[in-house]
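## retry 2 of 3
previous attempt timed out at serialization; input unchanged, resubmitting
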Amino acid sequence: MPELAKKYSLTWKVTPDLLGILNDSGLFENTNPAWFTTLGFLPDEVESRSFLSFVHPDDLPATEAAFEAVQRGTPVLKFENRYRHKNGSYRWLSWNTVPEGGRYYCSARDVTEHKEAVNALLVTERDAHLREQFIAVLGHDLRNPLAAIASAIRIIRREAQTETTLHMLSMTQGAVDRMTALIEDVMDLARSRLGAGLSIDRGVVLPLMPALRQVIAEIQLAQPDAKIEAVLDFADPVNCDPARLAQLLSNLLSNAVSHGAATRPIRMTAADEDGQFTLTVANQGPAIPEKALEMLFQPFFRANAGANQDGLGLGLFIASEIARAHGGTLTATSEQDWTVFRFQMPRT
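## retry succeeded, writing output
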């Protein structure tokens, strides 16, 4: 028996769980060293005090009810409440208490980190729900009315129109197109920044070359004064999402048109280099300051706020997110008269 008592004594001292013995009045008669480790209290600061004096005010009613249950002879298992630390903070404890011979034998485990992890998960789930609601509003409540307006414009154009009304219809269609593009940019920002990430579709391998040529033609049509020198020389198809890489190229070319020297050509290349697919867009013009270069891929950032430009300043950010979604990189260098954007991704 002395040897067994010694083992029990050692267990009492070394266990990380809080152990205690309460009398029928709810006063601690004995506690183990874990009280100091977990809550910062020495034995003489706990013993002969009511356990309720340590309980968080919001947890008092439930704690009192649990103690009444154990006084009636019902063991209390995995009961959670908050106990005050000596520094004034509170820790979540999970209690097991059993009655025996007019005393109540208690053990408690610190579950604060577990509770915080559960709460963090709940917050994450709530944010995910809000994110889905936000994207749904953009996708349905904003895009659908724009689609209806675009459809109405097409129907009206079938009828005979004066030169003035045709001009007004063209202006309206342009406004719809710009608003649609802005909504798509904001949706991409929401997906990237709110946790879902940009979606890419690699399910079916499709040729990339036609998608890139289409973008170049569209930019050239929209900006007839811009001169784009394009060299496309790579093995097609590429294991990518052609629509997303076309979007990346469109954003880079639009940026070059907005910020490059108007009288100088924009150079665009797409090629295979050492197992990588590489796409570059280079424009001439004043060098981008180093501090601005560091912020170039941040959302809403504009290197030249005074420039005549459309959009929200999301183009380069979205391009960088498309690159990342493909396991690639998008970098920018600006020296002397040339600014070069370079996208690289593994071909396999």
